[in-house]
Amino acid sequence: MKTAAVRSLKTAAWTSAESADLYGIRSWGAGYFDLGEDGSVTVNVNFDGKRLGVSLLDIIAGVQSRGLQMPVLLRIENILDAQISLLNESFGRAIRTLGYLGEYRGVFPIKVNQQCQVIGEIARFGARYGHGLEAGSKAELLIALASLDPDSGYIVCNGYKDSEFVSLGLQALKLGYRCIFVIETPTELPIIVEESRRLGIRPMLGARVKLAARVGGHWTESSGDRSLFGLTTAQIVQLVDELRGHGMLDCLQLLHYHLGSQIPNIRDIRSGVLEACRYYVDLAKEGAALGYLDLGGGLAVDYDGSQTNYGFSKNYSLDEYCSDIVEAIMSTLDPEGIAHPVIITESGRATVAYSSVLLFNILDVTHFEPAPVPEARPKGEHELIGNLRESLKGINPKNLQETFNDALYYREEIRDLFKRGQIRLRALSVAENIFLEIVRTIAREMQGVKRVPTSLEGLEESLADIYYGNFSVFQSLPDVWAIEQVFPVMPVHRHNEAPTRQAIIADITCDSDGKIDRFIGPRGVRKTLPVHPLVEGEPYYFGVFLVGAYQETLGDLHNLMGDTNVASVRINEDGTFDVAREMAGDSIADVLSYVEYQPQQLLEQFRTTAEQAVRKGRISVGERQAVLEAFSASLRGYTYYED
Ligand SMILES: *Cc1c(COP(=O)(O)O)cnc(C)c1O
């Protein structure tokens, strides 16, 4: 075959540098991910300015030898630490350079990744910067109180707060925590006032404002004055009056807004800060004891590495983000003679996205390759199939569109013949094979054509292989399905070999939405991914990168695919790595119990069925034992494909 010849030529010359370009890893990898000379993806960390790379393939081997099968969610603690440092140091630099008189104190919004180990690492590593936590619910407040040292970071409480929530937060103030209640709706104030009187503890309060500024990106619709949360101008004025009435205006210390997540355009960030500062100035002049400005989340991640204001990218660096914010605050507050506030941001996505990688193996592949079409026509072949053969022979650069339309028409007619019983299955399969050969030939011809007719676009995708990956989109990459998010996806190894196939990736849920078919391309989103041909008997591993934010808890149990195994690694200064923690994913018994089955009872029921089969003489007692053992081994097993 022609493609084989092309492949061997290319393979000889292919280098991992070419792969790095093709997959864009040096653009989206942010220095954390790269390709090594051996053709595998490396995880890179810095020790005193010295860069160390560890092969993901070595990590996979290490994890597997500890008994964790694919799919595995890999967490890299060093990357999480590095991101927390980066955020704090960048703000620190901007503050020093611009002569800002307040400080920066970040809080991590727990909802972005609530996993115990992640929050533990943020609290532990963030302590040196006084990095705190943002809690949006009672459960998250409990996490924050248990994880943080009272004298360390702030706890910002957003979301609806009932008296139980408020009472706990107030008592926490007495322990030394700086726990701030952000008032999101007017109904919260009476509850806070009452609990505060009852306990004799004065609260630290914030007000969440609804800014008029609208942001680009996926969350456009929920920004602006129709945003779901926050107080309108009328409600804020009323809040100030009521607080004054209660003698509590000095409790109002913080102004908060949140424009939405993943804000791709720096202009939107800047105009949000400028607008919020106007509120800040006027509330200070009203007599509120403001000292904190909380800008919420929104710091974006450049998932595709394009550095543009496309929805899954961002057109600014972290340094620009920090200095634009600091500068905008100074330019608004200084002329009014208002002291510089403590700057709080609630960056979630940007803090954790880089630190997790989903690893999975490829189980199988479907090719849409036509078999060679024999010259000779069988006797009595239907004339429509003959027409298809003529179309194939007559393809030239000038009639691609016409031939494609003809082929579609003949195939439809032939399928109708089959439905009416007028041709046999074998004849239909010959026709479909010729059709595929036509499509492939057209696709090849199209590469030399300057203007591709629009109805022919997408032709190549229809020829792409389907690679079946051992994972569930719904469990591990819910945003791929829910908001068509594009994550970097690529093979973990074999990058010294040309990826000669084009593929989409299907998961194992057998749901038609369980697939990845949008990838990072050199010019925006591409619909197929270059991959290597499978080699019999050799594993082929893929990584989906930058999945540390939002994916874990939003994932669901579609088709009862449970939590994956998780391995948390820490890379050491000598280039070795420790698997600091390993957590087995859900067993089948676990996921069954989530949907209210009792695994033990299921086994009992099945035992009864097996016993009856023995009585009826369908199976022997030995066979009964074997099938019961298989059933109970499955209950203990992993929900994914096991080797
Ligand atoms: C979700 C959320 C965040 C986190 O936003 P990121 O874009 O992930 O940084 C911060 N604050 C509030 C109030 C949120 O709802």
Give me a quick take on this structure.
The protein has 643 residues and is an alpha/beta fold.
How would you sum up this structure, described in words?
The protein has 643 residues and is α/β, with parallel strands linked by helices. It has 4 domains: 1-76 and 356-366 and 464-585, Lyase, Ornithine Decarboxylase, Chain A, domain 1; 100-347, Alanine racemase (TIM Barrel, Alpha-Beta Barrel), CATH 3.20.20.10; 383-454, Up-down Bundle (Methane Monooxygenase Hydroxylase, Chain G, domain 1); 598-636, no CATH class. The chain contains 22 helices and 23 strands. The strands form 4 sheets. Strands 4, 13, 14, 15, 16, 17, 20, 21, 22 and 23 form a 10-stranded mixed sheet that branches. It has an 8-stranded parallel sheet with strand order 5-6-7-8-9-10-11-12. The protein has a 3-stranded antiparallel sheet with strand order 1-2-3. α12 links the parallel β11 (292-294) and β12 (342-344). α5 runs parallel beside α6 and α21 (599-615) runs antiparallel to α22. The radius of gyration is 30 Å and the shape is globular. The model is unreliable at 1-10 (pLDDT under 50). Bound molecules: pyridoxal-5'-phosphate. Residues 109, 111-112, 134, 158, 258, 261-262, 296-299, 346-349 line the site of pyridoxal-5'-phosphate (PLP). Residues 109, 111-112, 134, 158, 258, 261-262, 296-299, 346-349 line the site of pyridoxal-5'-phosphate.
